[in-house]
Structure formats: structure tokens, C-alpha cells
Amino acid sequence: xxxxxxxxxxxxxxxxxxxxxxxxxxxxxxxxxxxxxxxxxxxxxxxxxxxxxxxxxxxxxxxxxxxxxxxxxxxxxxxxxxxxxxxxxxxxxxxxxxxxxxxxxxxxxxxxxxxxxxxxxxxxxxxxxxxxxxxxxxxxxxxxxxxxxxxxxxxxxxxxxxxxxxxxxxxxxxxxxxxxxxxxxxxxxxxxxxxxxxxxxxxxxxxxxxxxxxxxxxxxxxxxxxxxxxxxxxxxxxxxxxxxxxxxxxxxxxxxxxxxxxxxxxxxxxxxxxxxxxxxxxxxxxxxxxxxxxxxxxxxxxxxxxxxxxxxxxxxxxxxxxxxxxxxxxxxxxxxxxxxxxxxxxxxxxxxxxxxxxxxxxxxxxxxx
Length: 369
Ligand SMILES: Cc1cc2nc3c(=O)[nH]c(=O)nc-3n(C[C@H](O)[C@H](O)[C@H](O)COP(=O)(O)O)c2cc1C
Description:
Blueprint lengths: L2 H4 L3 E5 L20 H13 L4 E3 L16 H9 L6 E6 L6 H14 L4 E6 L4 H6 L7 H20 L3 E4 L4 E5 L13 E4 L3 H7 L5 E4 L4 H17 L5 E7 L1 E2 L3 H13 L3 H13 L16 H4 L11 E2 L1 H13 L4 E5 L3 H31 L1
Parallel strand pairs: 1-2, 1-12, 2-3, 3-4, 4-7, 7-8, 8-9, 9-12, 10-11
Antiparallel strand pairs: 5-6
Bound molecules: flavin mononucleotide.
């Protein structure tokens, strides 16, 4: 791979495999949760420079997601219709056990020439766990379980005769065959930003996904995360959520944001805010994903407005470079009118990002020569 390419920021998008789209608002959203729409969307994303797609796991209605396709099977079906895109399947410890997840993902890895990845999410929505008869450990305990889950996945994928006696999972001389195609193993992402989430990421995850945030806040978060990871001899990449509104003028982009918020589905946003608080959003130390979210932030349910990728292509490209300089490796994006806006992004924004990256690379090379 050329040096410039190795330095390139990566782009992912949220797969709308649940209904209701990415903003909890009555504004028109030209998107759809059907398989047919999602195939067109992923092919458009692949052609427009996106390298990853992220599916969501939801068992019951929440923030308006009335219908929810299951994430692993949906991811697999999406992979069948693309050639390069990697699809990240979301998995919740609790409903899934690590032995099943490891096997399911290894098989999909073979069926898709090594293009599956996994996002281990620890859960915020007690109601759905109650509804499906799963225990609901308290906030930090959920990460104890997730960490055992991730360690088990990685060991199963890379070693034979795996034995482990954990609090949540036990194994006795277990050997998975075939192992996944991807080496050293399938990439493991995680969602969650609380102290417990961060500490887990700094020990075991390959990627840390966090909610949208300002550059200043992200700098603090990433420095904390990477300092911890370095102490553990671990390397971690960072993906940040952003709801992107790119328009020819800044006024147009801001007007769209205003309209999304003005037309917010107030009751659903409030119910979502309540569920995240009950799920321990703020967690004890107050650093969790929604710890500081206002009503407006919650209209995009992963704080995607805060990242401020809202404006003209030039403004957005420059802000994306600031995020890169803050230590971000991947932008996880959402759009209002998904297919048409991914096309606009690929045509108008991404080329500017790539130009700025090359310019920056040349400045760095000149300085170090
Ligand atoms: C990018 C991203 C994707 C997520 N996807 C899901 C999901 O599909 N299903 C789910 O239940 N939770 C999902 N979560 C929520 C996390 O699992 C976690 O419960 C939440 O971020 C709160 O964590 P915290 O309090 O530790 O910060 C996601 C979080 C992030 C940042």
C-alpha cells in the first residue's frame, strides 16, 4: 500500500437496518430499512469511497425504531452484494454467547473473503433485555462481561484448545475450525465511552467507537484512551460518530439542522433520554456516551450533531482533517437522505479531504527531511 493511502482516514456509515432513520424527527428522511434499499445504499457507499458499514442490534422498539432486522444475518446479506466493503455486525453479550458468535463470524468471514467485522455493544436499553428474558448487570458490570466476551472471541479465533474459567463464560479445550480468514483475527470494534468502556478498549478492543463530540472533547478522550492503552502495551484505533449535513452553502446546511430539531419527535426523544439515564448513560464518573447530551443532541441518537460536520464541502473537509489531527482514524457517518447524500459526499467532500491529507503529508515530510 502506498504511504499516502496508509495515512488515509477511513469512512463508515450507519446501516439503516432498523426503521425510523437516524434522527428522531418528523422531517422527511429519504431512506429506508428494507434490504433492497440497503443494497443500493451499500453499493453507492462502496463506489463513493466508504470502507465500512455498521449495522445496529435492537431487539425491541426504542427511539422510534419500530422494526429491527437482526444485525449478523443482515450484515452477511449485505456482504453478498459488495466486493470491498467491510460490514461490522453489532453483537450484544447476553443474547449472544462468545462460542456462537466466534463460530458464526468465522463462517461469514469464509463466505465473504474476509470482510466481516464485529462491534461488541454492552447495552443501554434495559427494557429490551427484560423483554427477552436476559439478565441486566449494572453498568460497569456489563463491561466485565463484554471484556470476557472479546477475550474469548480473540482466543477462539487464534488458538487451539482454549480453556477459560471466567465470571460469565467458561471453556474447556475448545478448538474452532476453520479459523477465520482474516489475520490475526476478525477486527473487534466496541461502542461506549464511559470509564469502564474506555478501560476495556485500552485492554482488548481493536477499535473504540464513540458518540459525536467536539474536537476539544475528543482530544481529551483520545489522549486518556491512548495513554492507558500504551501502559497495557495495546494499540487502539478510534472511530467517531457524525451526522453529516453537506450543502452548497452554510446557510442551507444550518437550515436543515434547524428543521430537524424543530420537527423533533419530542416524546420519543425524551423517552430515549430517560432510557439512556436508566441504563447508566452517565455512569458513576459522568463520562458515558450520553452523559452530557442535551435534548437537541439526543435528536440524533448518537450525538452526531456535536461533531459539527455541518456546512459546505470545504468546511466539512477542513473539520474532518481537524478530527484526524485529534487522533481520529475513522468517521462513522449518518445522513438525512442517505443515498443521495452519500453520493454528494463522495463527489464533493471526500476529494477535498484526500487533497488536504496529501498536502498535510507533504508538509510533514518536508519538515522531517
Ligand atoms: C458507534 C456505536 C454503535 C452502537 N451500536 C449499538 C447497537 O447497535 N445496539 C446497542 O444496543 N447499543 C449500541 N451502542 C451503545 C453502546 O453499546 C453502549 O451501551 C452505549 O454507548 C453506552 O455506553 P457507555 O455508558 O459505556 O458510554 C452503540 C454505541 C456506539 C458509540
